[in-house]
Protein: Nucleotidyltransferase
Organism: Vibrio breoganii
Amino acid sequence: MNSNPDRWKQRLQNLQRANIRLKRACSQDSYNELELAGLVQTFEFSFELTWKTLKDLLVYEGFDVASPRSVIRTALEAKHISSEQCETLLQALMKRNLLTHTYDEENVLEAQKLILEAFSPVIASIVDYLGQKSAEE
């Protein structure tokens, strides 16, 4: 168990900064090869911080979670995320795992579309929720 009750709030600050970078990366109209790689990398980093911040919050609340999948499912049970957010995060987890282990241009272009249309908005909404939760405590 995590004895530091502020751990999730500290990680949230990093997530908020990463989310700003992700929003900036998503704001372009088109991407060259390097910019596309940067978008994917920024998504991967933001996704990691999202599930790890949720994990720290859940541990603080007394849950026993370890893997990203268990964190996402437990966050749904604890009502920190909606079922739609849960499904999107699980899809993002699968895509992140695929992007980490293989490079296929078609897969990257599909990831770009998902990052812009689904993953980034869900991460942003979770960041907003966690920011409000942090301010309430």
Remarks:
- The two ends are 20 Å apart (CA to CA).
- The chain has a mean pLDDT of 92.
